[in-house]
Amino acid sequence: MKRYNVAILGATGAVGREMLKVLEEIDFPLASLTLLASKNSVGKSLFYKGKQIKVREATHDAFKGIDIVLGASGNAVAKEFARDIVGSGALFIDNSSAFRMDKDVPLVIPEINPFDIKGHHGIISNPNCSTIITLLAVYPLFRLSPIKAMIASTYQAVSGAGAKGPIELEREMKEEIEGKEHVPEVFLYPIVSNLIPHIGSFDEEGYTSEENKMQNEGRKILHCPELKVTCTCVRVPVKRSHCISVTVLTEKPLSLEEVREAMESQEGLRLYDDISKNEYPMPLITSDQDLVYVGRIRKDRVFDNGISLWCSGDQVRKGAATNAVMIAMKWVEINA
Amino acid sequence: MKRYNVAILGATGAVGREMLKVLEEIDFPLASLTLLASKNSVGKSLFYKGKQIKVREATHDAFKGIDIVLGASGNAVAKEFARDIVGSGALFIDNSSAFRMDKDVPLVIPEINPFDIKGHHGIISNPNCSTIITLLAVYPLFRLSPIKAMIASTYQAVSGAGAKGPIELEREMKEEIEGKEHVPEVFLYPIVSNLIPHIGSFDEEGYTSEENKMQNEGRKILHCPELKVTCTCVRVPVKRSHCISVTVLTEKPLSLEEVREAMESQEGLRLYDDISKNEYPMPLITSDQDLVYVGRIRKDRVFDNGISLWCSGDQVRKGAATNAVMIAMKWVEINA
Q: ipTM, 2 decimals?
């Protein structure tokens, strides 16, 4: 079997560390593994299969000889190094939003549009976390009928803001118990016992960048340029796993039976919907694993051809690290 | 000014205690105040304007001479005593859901349908907490155009489950910090760092009793028997104040300007929607006061005639105690 020289760019962040874990868990065919981060992280080391690997500085010539770069950085760093990565001949699978909407860049959920991988020109983008989780839950409906619209409200965990999110929440929990005041650093407001309906930046229509992603990325991934999505994104005091309440408007009427059947056969998705046993997706059960859970499936009351559902998934794993590694695996399969 | 003999039934619970506070704050014209609760609470006492009042047992003959009974109990207790209360000639303003959908019983949000008070036959019901908060935020749109449908996802605080809710959340926060296991008592699952998409009991269509209330009670309060509401109710790890993400479908197209104007003039509502200053409703700022806050107002992307918004209100106050006391005040005005 062919083996690959892989680098993680932004290896010390929440997503980078999770990529390392996922590579190990699935036993990715590695020839070598390079961990890259900013100057500040040089000196740190991380473990892969019990072996210590030193973090190296991400410089413009750090990508020579690399086959695949898994990008776990923010937009600025991704933009800074994209040309170097592609120039060195490596495939850049980027988790930032820097290139997601570029025409030349496939935006891929491997269970949905693996065929788009072939069209890459050196960069493949990993979609937004809430988008991945929602689309995986909704995709079985799409297999049965074109989808016209979705109305989604998200419940997003603090780890979506990086490794510092859960640290801030835990610190605020302690302060809450001790009756101390909160001085938020990661979020604009205290998040313990609070809800913040603002993730990203606002556009002129009053939508946030995070809310726009579900429509824009959904259209690209599903190849549905007409798809309409209203989304409200909310940060909640949960450490890990995003949840989304979604109403889906389909072109054809769908029975709950065929919807459930399609969901049961969907790779990457677990139908978890037995209300007689109080079984429904919750962060409590969907964290630290790779499946998206879907439940609370019912006929919508507003749309004649509508289905409402509730889904939950670990946004650091399937919403980021796992999806990126799965893109790499699919690319390996295609190249094999 | 005429003064009234008022009793609180279920005075020692979260809503009962808040009713006592609200009566004091607005200086309700009291002739006497009687605090009633179950046998277990006899011996306790509560304070009204610095004066200690002993809690008495709620018995069938406890309502003689009372003019207004504010009901802060569950359905079973409300049903047990309704006949006695009405038989004694008192007005029963009940916060339970026992009588809300009865034809003879007005269901009232004083800022929306005060005129329904006159039609009472001894009982007036206080609507569900999420319904009150949502409808107050949506009512300005209704004043501009008939409303055809709403799609709502709720973010409901633990205090909605009574005084034990916040105690359980705080206990679980401590356990979380200490790395201890949780043994939930109030909720079906741990609520700290979790989301539970299940409040009330499930019907055959897969909706919960809590979710059905927004459609059923909304139809009755707005006198719109055709109103369609899809609702998803979720318990979140927040101590106080419910939030709701709502998309409203109106018959006529509405401009954001006229919507904002109508909201600004709406009694009981505060338009809090300056995204340039990161101002939007949050539990952090809407708790322990009586206004419903509304923000994140924008044109919906799915419905041509749609408005999306985010609202937040203290469900123990405006969602329960304050609304009940305001019904009593309106009744006093009508009777004066």
A: 0.96
Please give the helix or strand (H or E) that residue B79 lies within, else none. helix B75-87
How crowded is the C-beta side of A58, counted as CA atoms within 13 Å? Answer: 26
- Residues A241 and A291 occupy one common structural domain: yes
Q: What is the per-residue pLDDT across B321-332, written as a single tens digit (0 to 9) for each?
A: 999 999 999 999
Q: Are residues B163 and B242 in the same domain?
A: yes
Whether A183 has its CB under 8 Å from any CB of chain B: the answer is: no
Q: Domain containing A13: what range?
A: 4-127+320-335
Interface test with A, best of B133, B151, B183 (most A CBs within 10 A): B151
In this structure, the answer to whether residues A48 and A138 fall within a common structural domain is no
Judged by a CB distance cut-off of 8 A, whether residue A170 touches chain B is yes
Is residue B31 very low, low, confident or very high in pLDDT (cuts 50, 70, 90)? very high
pTM of the model: 0.97
Q: A268 and A318 in contact (C-beta within 8 Å)? A: yes
Are B173 and B268 contained in the same domain? yes
B229 reaches A (C-beta below 8 A):
yes
Query: What is residue A18's predicted lDDT score, i.e. its pLDDT?
Result: 96
Q: What is the DSSP string of A73-122?
A: S-HHHHHHHHHHHHHTT-EEEE-SSSSTT-TTS-B--TTT-GGGGGG-SS
Q: Which residues contact B300 (CB under 8 A, 6 or more apart)?
A: A151, A230, B247, B248, B249, B306, B307, B308
Of all residues in chain B, the one with the smallest CA distance to A240 is: B193
Domains: count for chain B: 2
Distance from CA of B334 to the nearest CA of A (A): 38
Residues of A in contact with B176 (CB under 8 A): 170, 173
pLDDT in tens, B123-171: 999 999 999 999 999 999 999 999 999 999 999 999 999 999 999 999 9
The minimal CB distance from B302 to the residues A151, A173, A312 is found for A151
Domain holding A287: CATH number? 3.30.360.10
CA distance B51 to chain A (A): 28
Report the b/e string of A179-192 with b at 16+ CB within 10 A: eeebeeebbebbbb
Give the model's pLDDT for residue A237: 98
List the 189-208 stretch of B: residues with Cβ below 8 A of A.
189-190, 192-198, 202, 205-207
Looking at beta carbons, which residues of chain B come within 8 Å of A245?
153, 197, 232, 234, 245
Nearest CA in chain B to A233: B245
pLDDT at residue A335, rounded to an integer: 83
Considering chain B, what is the average pLDDT of its residues? Answer: 97
CA angle A212, A217, A220 (to 5 degrees): 140
Residue A1: predicted pLDDT: 79
A302 contacts chain B (CB < 8 A): yes
Q: pLDDT digit string (tens) for B42-60? A: 999 999 999 999 999 999 9
**Residue A254 sits in the same domain as residue A208:** yes
